[in-house]
């Protein structure tokens, strides 16, 4: 699904698209930080999803076309979440049980992560998908006439 | 057992995601959503068998400690209601697959997957052992119900959908505040721990908490005086959606009420509940008499029947709770079937208004039979399941010598019978209506809808046949709920 904004911004006034383009990587970085911080600090998949969703909203306000399909994102997110929730059952653990892995990397130092990370990524995908769906829903706001069946 | 419990919650959710992904491939979409619902309902029967034999099964989600963790508890009450609810959704899904290609049907690309999400929420609401997860389950159900109710975007749907959303957001907000109050007072939202800690609180605080959650669950259950959103919104939705809502949504409010208020032993609220139960019964039954549309009459019946369940609960005795549980189990399928038949009537007449139908008893005798069975059952005539359920509730009332509420219940039953007669005269007797414009439906689809309805009617008859077993199970569940400490001991074991 390729969404083109109904209001094409005029070429002479391009401050908004330019600043949005500048902000995008910084905001994306903040989103990724929140995604990882969520295990032990404030943040997490939902917060990250909201930040990414804000990027998508800003970009669509600036008239940048959006190439993500909302439904696929939501479906993929739900499937990941369900898979992570059910996976421990196959190893005889409790539903939604998590495995924690820690690795020591050269620059970043000791990193603790685990099966909660894909879960959070799933949540992020659902939230971003919802924001995109809302945006495209707002573009087509019509009410069918007629009585109820 | 852990896996079975997981299936009832996760399978419909996964199926809805897959169904949404393949929403353009009709065959794959319908088969996936159906398979998810089928898996959940088969699993729920195994859970019932397991719990009836070996007792309560508890799942500690993620192995967290009881104070903060999420816990799923399959006790007899949950295990008894779950298969009924999931089977209803499954039957409605069969009906929906048949109805989809007609103009009355819900949007197939949306309705199937959303029904999956709703089912997942229903399973979670029945199985959860803590109040916060109950809130999440309610939201899961409500959010999908908002979309299901309004997705066709017709004026009437949006208008009544507005009331529905506002009422439910109101009660959800109260729920959230209530959670905060409970947590502040007891330091937990786990129901097993609450069962121990709430009775130790000062009387006023106990009553406050009980009253607060009575309002929360009462709004969801459409108890008088907070019922007006129901008869307004339900009839506007497509038949399949209304059938699921009618069978399940208000009943989940009652379920939560039975669980919470018996566990925390809110017997002091009993008299207030009985008064409201009386009003709910009478107002629902009289409201039904005033309507001129099959679906609206049936919607008012839901309210009146909620009164009976509330009466069973309000008596705060083992017999009363047994009656309420039995009534719940009987009411869910019967109500759903009646709405499915309402859908069939709409399909043959082009409208569910009484003035625009007539003469169906000669034109479609099988439809008359299909309608008569659940209608008589709902009105509480022997030998149908409604009789057993009503008898259980009313005899519990007689035992408790609450003669006023018993009298009210009997009068309401009579009024229900009267409004059923009104449908019977309007739709099945008389000359065939000239205004009838059948909805164009392909033969195969129509057969599928009739099969689903017949299956459901057969299901309600099965409930009458197994009424004895069900009564025993309900009684056991009621004893578990009414005996202080049983639930708590099972969960903390």
Describe the structure.
The complex is a heterodimer of chains A (149) and B (493). Chain A has 149 residues and is mainly alpha-helical. Chain A contains four helices and two strands, in the order H-H-H-E-E-H. Chain A has one domain. Helices cover 57% and strands 8% of the residues of chain A. A two-stranded antiparallel sheet of chain A has the order 1-2. In chain A, helix 1 (15-37) packs antiparallel against helix 2 (45-61), helix 2 runs parallel beside helix 4 and helix 3 (70-90) packs antiparallel against helix 4. Chain B is mainly alpha-helical. Chain B has one domain (2-492). In chain B, 77% of the residues lie in helices and 2% in strands. In chain B, a hairpin with an 8-residue loop joins strand 1 (57-61) and strand 2 (70-74). The radius of gyration of chain B is 21 Å and the shape is globular. The chains are: A mainly alpha (149), B mainly alpha (493). Chain A binds chain B through residues 71-72, 74-76, 78-79, 82, 85-86, 89, 93-98, 142-149, and chain B through 2-3, 5-6, 10, 13-14, 16-18, 20-21, 23, 59-63, 70, 72, 103-104, 152-158, 235-236, 238, 346, 351.
